[in-house]
Specification:
The protein is an alpha+beta fold. It has six helices and nine strands; from the N terminus they run E-E-H-E-H-H-E-H-E-H-E-E-E-E-H. The radius of gyration is 14 Å and the shape is globular.
Length: 168
Amino acid sequence: MIKIGDTLPATTLMEYVEVEGNGCSIGPNPVNVAQATAGKTIALLAVPGAFTPTCSAQHLPGFLEKAEQFKAAGVDEIWCLAVNDAFVMGAWGREQNTAGKIRMLADGDAAFAQATGLTLDLHGKGLGLRSNRYSMLVKDGKVVQLNIEGPGQFDVSDAATLLAQVTA
């Protein structure tokens, strides 16, 4: 399992882009994790699934509400990851009004989740292999804070906890 001090896995995530520009075409675009984190400070939240109750009502909205505070504290980008496809993550981002504040990144085949060791097996619930719920602070591709939730929990990965760690 990934831990503080480790480098993020060399994987590719997907991001649905609605407006063409900056070398991105409309639709799903690959995001090379190593390149995208190089020289940046990233606040990352991972959720078991887009549109799911806790993720939609609490986890993502908390980061959206505190997006400006994260930026003021030196965070370059906020990433939201889920084991969903880029189209679903794009639709969830539209619903939550994340444009310009949070990058909605799809780990469609769970490669990132598996490489970090932060998976959640929800096969019996019809959801298959998913990402565990956690938050992470990443600087130049390395993990500097990591807040992993227990199954069914939402106690340590919230925006307020990670923001307190960023500003400490």
